[in-house]
Fold this sequence. Notes:
Number of helices: 5
Number of strands: 0
Radius of gyration: 28 Å
Distance between the termini: 87 Å
Strand content: under 5%
Helix content: 40-55%
Order of helices and strands: HHHHH
Oligomer: single chain
Structural class: mainly alpha
Amino acid sequence: MGNAAQGHGRYTGPRRACGGQHRPQPGRHRRGLRRRPTTDFRLSASWDGRLLAAGIPAAHTVALSWISAATGPPASSPEAASGFTFFMPFPSYPSSAFASIEKMPDRLHGFGRNQPITPAIESLRGLLPGRQVGNAPWIALAWAGGMLAVAIAVSGVLFRIRTR
């Protein structure tokens, strides 16, 4: 029997087994509002900054893919070729991706500042919130272009040697 028949005034549908309390709909909070995400990041980059921020990881991905392709011809099997790429993530550890370079030991400062991952990370950290980044994006793209050119050349030479 509905609520109106029990003297509550307006009819709100049949009583539920949970004592008449309405359960929230899926995806909605009890107060009727969606819960806000816990992060408070606002993307305030310009469109050219967003394109550049998307292009830097894409360029590095293409370069690292060609480096991986260059490990194929000298390898004796596909498993051995994939074993060569095991060491590829390690140069990112002494970069500014995980800790600022100033907090690293003194002997790692030079390597941390002058490697391909640091300018890419600094570019993304500055471009996405819309801050000034100087020439870090161009340095990151130059690193990616240099790695790509060397990897294509080495890959071609190794392939020619392997197929003779």
